[in-house]
Design brief:
- The structure is a single chain.
- The chain has about 190 residues and is α+β, with helices and mostly antiparallel strands.
- It is about 35% helix and about 25% strand.
- The strands form three sheets. A four-stranded antiparallel β-sheet has the order 3-4-5-6, covered by helices on one side.
Length: about 190
């Protein structure tokens, strides 16, 4: 859909939500879609605006420059401020807690993962020792764990694969030497 003259520089356009046919969209619904993203309201703690919109991955909430998906059971046009704040709090829990800034730059996070809690810095992840609570971990505890993990990890996946292939080649006996020796004996 679009509003305005198609010959103008950039007319306002909107995509239809997944599962919606163009034949079922009336004028009211078209105007609602073209008015997106809509302001849900200011966040009660920070006062920053929470917006609801429709993107290429479906409906979302936008708050302080970060996006979180809107569940299928929530309607994009009727989601209220209280529900939006709850959804943003859930998304923040999944993202993890920022412990602080790493000495080399970038934030260090502590997260609850599928296989247990871990700390993360620039996509480097180090598992927390058993019995360590996420709420008790500090930046001072996380930095040595990350350093140990960085020392153990191979430089890249490609170099690890190359090293594995080289060691496999050295361990395998050469078959060509036996065949040529057998041919000479005949």
């Amino acid at each position: 859909m679009q509003i305005g003259d198609p010959e103008t520089k950039k007319p306002k356009r909107a995509s239809l939500p997944k599962g919606t046919s163009a034949a079922t969209v009336d004028l009211e619904r078209a105007i609602e879609l073209l008015s997106l993203p809509r302001d849900v309201g200011p966040h009660p703690e920070t006062g920053d605006m929470i917006q609801a919109g429709l993107g290429r991955f479906g409906p979302y909430l936008k708050y302080q420059g970060s996006f979180s998906s809107l569940p299928a059971d929530d309607d994009l046009f009727t989601v209220g401020l209280n529900r939006a704040v709850d959804l943003l709090a859930e998304a923040a829990k999944k993202k993890g807690r920022v412990l602080g800034e790493h000495p080399s730059g970038g934030d260090v996070y502590v997260k609850a993962g599928r296989y247990g809690p871990y700390v993360e810095h620039n996509k480097l992840r180090a598992t927390l020792p058993r019995g360590t609570e996420i709420s008790e971990i500090t930046l001072e505890d996380a930095i040595p764990l990350l350093a140990t993990k960085a020392a153990k990890a191979p430089a890249t996946k490609k170099s690890a694969k190359k090293a594995a292939k080289k060691s496999a080649k050295k361990a395998a006996p050469k078959k060509t030497a036996k065949k040529s020796a057998a041919k000479k004996a005949s």
